[in-house]
Amino acid sequence: MAVSLLWWYMKIDSKVTSRFAHNVITSRAVNRGNVHKEVVFDVELPKTAFITNFSMTIDGVTYPGTIKEKEVAKKQYEKAVSKGQTAGLVKASGRKTEKFTVSVNIEAASKVTFELTYEELLKRQFGKYEMFIKVKPKQLVKDFEIEVNIFEPQGITELEAEGTFITNDLQNIIKKTFSEKKGHISFKPTLDQQRTCANCSQSVLDGDFTVKYDVKRTTPDNLQIVNGYFVHFFAPTNLPNLPKNVIFVIDISGSMSGREIEQTREALLKILDDIKEDDFFNFILFGSEVRTWKETLIKATPENLDEARKFVRGIDTAGMTNLHGGIMRGIDMLNAAHEGNLVPKRSASIIIMLTDGQPNVGISNTQDIQTHVKKAIEGKYPLYNLGFGYGVDYNFLEKMALENKGLARRIYPDSDASLQLQGFYDEVSNPMLTDVELNYPENEISDLTKNSFKHFYDGSEIVVAGRFIDNNQNSLTVDVRGEGVSMDFFDLSTVHKQTAKAFQEQEYIFGEYIERLWAYLTIEQLLEERIAATGEEKENLTAEALDLSLKYKFVTPLTSMVVTKPETYDNQDGIADKPIEGRDIFTVLLYLRIDGDPHFIISVPQKKDAICFNINENPGAVLNLINDPVTGITVNGELIGDKRVNSDAKIQNTYFGKIGIANKHLDLRLTVTPEKITIQNGNEKTGFTWLDSVTLQQEGLALIINREKSLVLKMGSGASFVIVLHQVWKKHPLHQDFLGLYALESEKLSEQTHGLLGQFFHPVDFTILEIHPGSDPKKPDATMIVKNNELTVTRGWQKDYRRDPKHGVDVPCWFVHNNGAGLIDGVHTDYIVSSLF
C-alpha cells in the first residue's frame, strides 16, 4: 500500500564552537494523498538545551515561531482556548530529553518544511565533552543525515561517535575526521540501510547518537575573546587528587523496601570498592529513627572497608522518613571531624543524601529543614541530594542543595538505578581543588558569570564568561586560586591576548558564539539562583533572566514560543514551554485525593493537568477506594451527609465521615472518624483522639498523628496514606466535620490494584479536543478521549488540602460528569460495598 505522507528529507546539522553547540533540525514532507492530512513534527532535545527558533514553510509560505514572555503567551493561549483551540508543544520525555511536537494540516499534494534550532553548552565529564542527539524519524526517510562540525581553538585530541541503534553494517557509515582544531562527523544511511530487514518498511533508526571529544591542554586554562565578550575555560590535568571525607545519608523508610533498597545496597558496595585508602567515610541511616555505622568518620583502610561491606549488606528498611534527623546528624558529624582534626586539613568534604519520599517524622516542614541545614553547613562543603523515584519533593531537594553549593539529581526507578547512583558518585569522587576562584580586573569587566566554585573535580571543567566594558579590548589578566593537596593554594596568574588570526578562525564556523555562550550561561545560572531566592531578590533575578531570554530568543522557564499556523483545517496556534525538573515528569505520577463532595482528583504531570470527578451517593454508603490483593491492603470510605437535609437541593452534600484501612496479611485494621482513631491488631485494640500527638512504630505499622490536623499511616511495605481532618464550627447549623484521604507512593502497590482510586495508580492518558464555551463563561467545555471513550468535560477547580488543611489550594482540572462515567471502570455503584471492612 502506498504511503500518503512521505518524509523525504531530514537533517540534523550541528556546529560546535568552543563547546557551544548550535543545532538545526530540518524535516520536509509531502502529502501524496487526495485529501488534506495532518503532519506531525516531533523531536527530542537535550534538557540542557534552549530552543532559539522554529518555523514551518508550507508551499512556500513561512509561519515562524515568536518567543514571548510566558504571561503574554499564556494570555494568547487562553484566548485561543476560548475560541475552541488548544496548545502545548514541549514536554519532558525522558531522563535526558524534552519532546518538541507541532502538528499542522496540509492540503493534498502540498509540501511542508519544519526547521527547529536549539543551543546548549556541552559539559565536560570524565575527561570528555558529550553531545547527545536523539534519532527517531519513525519511518524511512529518503534523505537522512546527521552532520557535526566542531571547531576548538585549543585543538582536538580525540573524537568519537556511537549510537545505540548502530549495527555492524551501519558502523561503517559513520564518517569521522579531525585534525588540529577542526573535527567532522557525518552519518548518512540510504533507504535500504535504514530498513530493519530487506523488504521492511520499519526504520532501524531509533535511539541515541552520541558524539564525544576532548581538547588539547598545554596549560591549565584557555581564554577566548570575541567582540567585547570572553569565555574562560579552566581544567588542570596534572594535579593529584585530594583525599575526601564522604558521609552517605540514606533513607531506609518503608517506602524504600524491595528493589530500591536492593539497588542502594548494590551501589554502595560498588562505591566501597572505589573508595581510596586516604579517604574518610561513614553511613547514616534514617527511617523513623536515625542510626549511624560509626560514631565518627572512619579511614578507608582495607579492614574498615570489609566491615563497611558487612554493614551495607545488612541495611534494611523500617519506619517513616526522619529526613531532618538524618541530614543534621551527618552535618554535625562532619563538623565535629573538622573541629577535632580527625580528617586531613587538605581534603574535600561532601554529604550525599538519598531519599525516595518526603519528611514526615520529627521536623517535617521543608522550609525549617532548609534553614537548619544551611545554618549548620555555613558554606563549608557541598550537599548533594539524590531523589529516588517520583515520590520526592524534588523542588525542596534542589533548593536545599543549591543553597549549600551542591546540586540535586533524580535517580530514575529503573533496572539500572544502582548504576545511576554509582555514576553520580564517580562524578564527585576525584576532587582536585577546593575553594576555586577565578578573578578578573573589576575595572575592565561587567556582567560576569559565576566565578567561585567549592570543588573542582578531575575530568570536569570550570567555565566563566563575561562582558568587557571596552568592546575593543583583546587582552585580559586572569588570576586563578584554589587549595590543593600539596600546597595551600594553587595559584595561576596569566595574561591572555587574542590575535587577529584567532578572530578569523572563530568566525569560520559560528560567529557571535561567545556572546551567546555568555547569555546562555548567565540565564542558566540566574534561573538556578532563582530557585533558592525569595522576595525582592527572586523578583530581580527573574527580571534579569527574562530580559536576556527575550533579547537572545531563548525558550526558558520564563518565556514561551508562540507558533502561528495557517487558518485552515482546524489548525491551531501553539505554545512551547520549557519544562522544569520536579514539576513536569513524563512517567505518570499520580496523587489521588478525596475531599468534600466527595470529589476525586487524578493528577497527570506529563500532561501538566488533572482529571476530577464527584461521586453522588446517599449518606451511609460505603465505597471501595483501594483494593490490592497482592499486598493485602484495602481502603474503604463511608459517606455522611449534612446535619439536616436541604429539601430544595436535587443532590444532597455528602462527605467521608469514616475511613477504614486494612492489611489482611498482617491482620491490621485502622478506623478513622472525625472524633477518634482506632487500631485493631488481631484482637487487640488501641484508641487515640485527634487531640493526641502520636508517633507509633510497631511491626508492620507506622503511624503519626499531627494534633487536630492529619495522620500519616504506612502498613507493611505498601503505599503511605495521609488522612486530613476538616473541622467546621461546632454550632454550624448544616455542615459537620469530615475527612480527606491522600494516597502517596502508589508505586508500592501491585499492578492488580483496583478500586475507585486504585485503578488510577496505573498509567492514565487522555486527549482534550474541541474546547468551546460552556454554560459558565469562566468554565469552558471540551471533548475528552480517555479509555476509548468520548466524554464531554468541563474546566473547573478543586481544592487540594494537603499543605493547607484549612483553606486548601485551588487545582485546575477537567471535570468528568455523571459520577465519572466513562473514566472509571464500570459504573460507580460497582464500588459500593456492604461494610467498612
From TrEMBL:
This is Inter-alpha-trypsin inhibitor heavy chain H3. Residues 245-428 form the VWFA domain. Belongs to the ITIH family. Keywords: Glycoprotein, Protease inhibitor, Proteoglycan, Secreted, Serine protease inhibitor, Signal. May act as a carrier of hyaluronan in serum or as a binding protein between hyaluronan and other matrix protein, including those on cell surfaces in tissues to regulate the localization, synthesis and degradation of hyaluronan which are essential to cells undergoing biological processes. Residues 1-120 form the VIT domain. GO terms for cellular component: extracellular region. GO terms for molecular function: serine-type endopeptidase inhibitor activity. GO terms for biological process: hyaluronan metabolic process. It is found in: Secreted.
